[in-house]
Write a structure and sequence with these properties.
single chain; about 100 residues; six-stranded antiparallel barrel
Amino acid sequence: MRHAQFHIADIQLGTRSLPLHYGTLQVVDREGTIDWELVLHTIDPEPVAQAIHLLAFRSITGVEESGALTLTPMHGEAALVRWVDNSLVFRGAGLLDGFDESQFG
């Protein structure tokens, strides 16, 4: 099973930016099926309905020779599966556009 994990630089839920304290993206190849999950920790509690949402975000995928971060735009639909205070967990409900399988470690 191949997997990759990235830090999230910023994220939008639909048209609304979420004030992000910290976030990670986990992508797993389960015998040809790509599953993905976002774990977000927002600065303040965010009212988010337990439903499928369009998420657009930039993942930190590397560092350039100059020291600048490489940010890769990604987006896809994901279901909010749980939340506690400032923590939100989304599970991918389809394709993750912008992710390239060459990014698996």
